[in-house]
Each structure stands twice: as structure tokens, then as C-alpha cells.
Write a structure and sequence with these properties.
heterodimer, A: 114 residues, mainly beta, B: 112 residues, 6-stranded mixed β-sheet, 5-stranded antiparallel β-sheet, globular
Chain lengths: 114, 112
């Protein structure tokens, strides 16, 4: 059984640029959630993808968007980057068959916006 | 917005001692999950306790849940230097939409 993987590990962008982060879900999981974790804070829910569609969204602007692919992997896209977007981006996978929605996280992508 | 409030924010103990961290939340939940995070890396899932459970054990971990007080505690017994990390509680709402709401975390330092 493979765990959740994310790429890249680190990324440096400048303000106004666009970024794409990638996540492969754990074997047997069909749902992916994305979280943003600012330094010294707990993770905040961005959105969740299930059956290739957005299935719930947190308090993030539309320039945060995502995709889920038939193999359940997912991408997080952020347009028009702002300095405050600098954070650790975490994805978590889970199974829709799990009534308790136990989520398992990847190692994260650390994004720095200059 | 953060639902959980964790207490204390930081905790420093000697190896071998027990560490207790508390979490409070505001709304009805389906379950509460505890995670560990080492040095800003990924979250490691420790334990999930369902809303109809009061206590759960996993190795040196003991989690309690009091839904009447909307609070939970994580006890790590016989702590080790390797337990040094940040610990977060996260709640799944009663509708269990898949969104986890995290607290701000407790930073635990275990001195050898």
C-alpha cells in the first residue's frame, strides 16, 4: 500500500505568478482534500475533490482551483499569487466508503512567494 | 476559521514523563482526529475517536472525548525525545462533509 505523495517538495514563485501543486492519493482512496497551513497555524481546509468534482470548499478565493483525475490524483492551482499565499500546502486522501472520513496526509509542498 | 482551541500552546517535559494536551471545539461533531507534525512537515494520523466513544487507546496514546463539554484530551505516556513535535486536533462536523477543522496545535518538547 502506497501512502499519499506530493510534488514538488519546495517551490519559490514571485507575486502574480501561477503555481500547480500535485498530489497522489493513497491506494484505495478516492477522495482528496487540500489544506493550507501558514507558519505557526493549524491547517485550513481549501476544498475537497470526489468523482472529479469539487465537493466542498473553505473560505478561499476563486483563484484557488483544483482538479481530480480518473486515477484519483489531484492538482491544486493558485493564480495571481500573493505574498500571503506563502504556506505549506497539504493534501489528504480518504475513502468515500469510510463513514468516519479518516484522512491521511502527504508530506506537503512548501510554497514561498517573493 | 479555526474551530479548535488547544491547550497548552507549548509544553516542555522530561523524557519518561507523561504529556497531556487538551482540545476544545464549538460545534457538533461526527468524530475528532489527532495528528502529529514534525518540524513543519506532513501530518501523521494518530487516532480517530467517534462522537459516541468516550475513550480510545493506541500504544502509548490515550484519547478521551467529552461531547457534553465539547472537549478532548490526548495523553502520551512515558514520553520519548522522538515524541517532540506539534500535535493538532481536528474535528469532522456532524454532517461529515469531509472538511476537517483544525486547532492551532500544541508544541511538545521532550528533553532527553
Amino acid at each position: 500500500e502506497t501512502g499519499v505523495t506530493q510534488s514538488p517538495t519546495h517551490l519559490i514563485k514571485t507575486r502574480g505568478q501561477q503555481v500547480t501543486l500535485r498530489c497522489s492519493s493513497q491506494s484505495g482512496h478516492n477522495t482528496v482534500s487540500w489544506y493550507q497551513q501558514a507558519l505557526g497555524q493549524g491547517p485550513q481546509f481549501i476544498f475537497q475533490y470526489y468523482r472529479e468534482e469539487e465537493n466542498g470548499r473553505g473560505n478561499f478565493p476563486p483563484r484557488f482551483s483544483g482538479l481530480q483525475f480518473p486515477n484519483y490524483s489531484s492538482e491544486l492551482n493558485v493564480n495571481a499569487l500573493e505574498l500571503d499565499d506563502s504556506a505549506l500546502y497539504l493534501c489528504a486522501s480518504s475513502s468515500s466508503n469510510d463513514r468516519y472520513n479518516e484522512q491521511f496526509f502527504g508530506p506537503g509542498t512548501r510554497l514561498t512567494v517573493l | 476559521s479555526q474551530q479548535g482551541e488547544e491547550d497548552p500552546q507549548a509544553l516542555s517535559i522530561q523524557e519518561g514523563e507523561n504529556a497531556t494536551m487538551n482540545c476544545s471545539y464549538k460545534t457538533s461533531i461526527n468524530n475528532l482526529q489527532w495528528y502529529r507534525q514534525n518540524s513543519g512537515r506532513g501530518l501523521v494520523h494518530l487516532i480517530l475517536i467517534r462522537s459516541n466513544e468516550r475513550e480510545k487507546h493506541s500504544g502509548r496514546l490515550r484519547v478521551t472525548l467529552d461531547t457534553s463539554k465539547k472537549s478532548s484530551s490526548l495523553l502520551i505516556t512515558a514520553s520519548r525525545a522522538a515524541d517532540t513535535a506539534s500535535y493538532f486536533c481536528a474535528t469532522a462536523g456532524s454532517s461529515n462533509t469531509g472538511k476537517l477543522i483544525f486547532g492551532q496545535g500544541t508544541t511538545l518538547q521532550v528533553k532527553p
